[in-house]
Amino acid sequence: MSEAAKPNRPQFRNIHITQLSSYRLPLAGLVSFLHRVSGLLMFLLLPFILFMLDKSLVSESSFEYFKGFTSGWFVKLVILALSWAYLHHFCAGIRHLVMDNHIGLDKVSARKSAASVLIISVPLALIVALKLFGAF
Q: What is the pTM of this model?
């Protein structure tokens, strides 16, 4: 077949780092990306959490020390980020388990399930934030 007779095929290339701000990720892709980010966040903060748990169980005075330590606004933000990571990772993990059973793999169902992950995990994280910062 000659070069002129070959049909033009679309070329799919990876996006460059400078194009990240203009790239529009679909909702299912966003939830998948946030699932990975939340898993990484939990993994990286796990040694810190286990250290605090270990030290807080040593004595009553060490528990009171860590109780005072966690009352700072920055530490509360870290706790809130960790809470969001857990809630989102849990909800998205259930979504992935359902998809592993070949349920909801079409485009419309995948978008609805991705939206449901955000609809469930974000308000739960807001409730945790309200409780953490003393609204109730």
A: 0.80
